[in-house]
Amino acid sequence: MEPSDTDQSSLQQPPYWSANYQGSLASRRNYSEEIADEENCSVWVTHLPAHCDSATLCHALRGTGKIYSMFINPPTSQHCTSAAKIVFWNRQGADKLMRLVVSRQFRVGYNQPRVTPHRIKVSAQVPSRRSRVIEISGPIEIVNRDFLSIAQGQQGSGGLDAHSPYMRRQ
């Protein structure tokens, strides 16, 4: 039987919760897993551009590895830049990003972010072809950003972060 989202019996509670934390203290996903540092797929990225969004960050991360989740914290009165927690699908993605940082090749806009392992450790996900990327094909009158944005807005969930139009011959 798998533990529920609120079952915390096998998880380490972080030594402190930030006063700025707005997540659920009851959710087991917000607790560090008991894994070795070398297995941690979660990183903390600071010194991002103030107006950094998911599309900008994903573009900068292209080629590092499959991303499981990402959350961007906007600037605050104490910090003039954004920060983000990124969880890669596996450790190889985190390692590749760290190599780019060490070689000073990782940039987001004009900023050279700092990357450290996140204190809330997350293990690798089960290998899968799952993705949040979808491919939609059809007549250009319907399959275009404006039409899809309107249609998506009527559904009330999700979002269109980016689109890459291309022609494919059948």
From TrEMBL:
<dbReference type="InterPro" id="IPR035979">
    <property type="entry name" value="RBD_domain_sf"/>
</dbReference>
<dbReference type="GO" id="GO:0003676">
    <property type="term" value="F:nucleic acid binding"/>
</dbReference>
<protein>
    <recommendedName>
        <fullName>RRM domain-containing protein</fullName>
    </recommendedName>
</protein>
